[in-house]
Amino acid sequence: MRKILVIGAGKSTAVLIKYFQDKSSSENLHITIGDISLTNAKELASNHPNTNAITLDVFDQKSREEAIKSSDIVVSMLPARFHIEVAKDCLRFEKSMVTASYVSDDMKALDQEATNKGLVFMNEIGVDPGIDHMSAMQVIDRIRNQGGKIILFESFTGGLIAPESDTNLWNYKFTWNPRNVVVAGQGGTAEFLQEGTYKYIPYHKLFRRTEFLEVEEYGRFEAYANRNSLKYQSIYGLDDILTLYRGTIRRVGFSKAWNIFVQLGMTADDYTLENSEHMSYRDFTNSFLAYSPTDSVELKLRHYLKIDQDDIIWDKLIELDIFNTNKKVGIPNATPAQILQKILMDKWTLDHGDKDMIVMYHKFGYEINGERKQIDATMVSIGEDQKYTAMAKTVGLPVAIATLKILNKEITTPGVQIPIQEEVYTPILKELEEYGIIFKEIDREYLGYNPDGVKG
């Protein structure tokens, strides 16, 4: 049998494993799931006859090498920083490799050797990055093949809660790594292009400059800018583009409320708080406010940030229990971001029966035959339950499909790459449609950001 090694048994892996298991008889596959937790690996294996679970610590060189050496292809679902150890072994034992993570500089440095050995190192083949790349390049290439020129490209993705499970004032629950939500936008200024002008949003203003999006049947959303929209300009072949913007989707009102935490300093992750383990949630909130012998913590916060008592933002803060004296942080030497994450996890963790939702929205502006036109493409995926989530589906399926197509030599171009070639995106997007991951396209009048022609 052909052996697939999956390293990492996290939340995004359930649908990936099920895909391999469902295809195991017809495709002659044997799946090995390796994780530092044998319990997690066994749970995903589910006693399937063509699946086994092993303990695999990525830092245990001997067991890692042994597992990789005895496989035909490797899927790494580890945190991004750990892929490089796996990749080096894949080079040594001449195995192709698939990951959903962004291409790191260390990974990029392996390109020539992978190419020389005829190995496919496919990266960024999840949802964002992944499905966004493939669905975007399919439309961009189609427009170019018709003789058109791309002048605007915007791409937005959000991991959200499905409407039927939306039960809090923030219209949000954690459907992915909570830490990534808390520290989102940090580590650099957001950079993008609008109508030929370079624009920048520093972190402290990021959540107050949002765009609004309308998705048929699902209503209105907002999006804040990703850190660097320009990194894909040359990769997508958009060197002459006027507008290039990538962002993260939330429900309207989330960003304005989240900005309160940013302004207070609660999202900081570069220092620790004294005696944090003994703090109450109220103590934590008060630590960012001026001392007053008379005013309450609530009053100080409202005055400091000019929040009226009847403002919905105030209700959102109350809902999170940030003024609770009885709830304790319980984390020693914690950063503000770590404490905020704990507070939010009390309220934003998925309840039993909750369903998540992935929303993706692309805008393509282009010139053809002297006319300017626009295509808007949207995709919405709703999860089945807490195991087979929309996030696990949209991350796991493209990874799994790409892995099988590499194994079957349907994807053959070697080297470290992302899925922007037609050889890759056409068959994968076609198969994803069978699982309900479908983009709806609407032709619109092109307005851009500058319908009056005034320099922005």
Automatic annotation (TrEMBL):
Bilayer-crossing regions: none
Keyword Transport: no
Positions of the Saccharopine dehydrogenase NADP binding domain: 4-122
Keywords of the record: Oxidoreductase
Classification via InterPro entries: AASS, NAD(P)-bd_dom_sf, Sacchrp_dh-like_C, Sacchrp_dh_NADP-bd
Domain Saccharopine dehydrogenase-like C-terminal: 126-437
A Pfam family the protein falls into: Sacchrp_dh_NADP
Protein's recorded name: Saccharopine dehydrogenase C-terminal domain-containing protein
Species of the source: Aquimarina litoralis
Phylogenetic lineage: Bacteria, Pseudomonadati, Bacteroidota, Flavobacteriia, Flavobacteriales
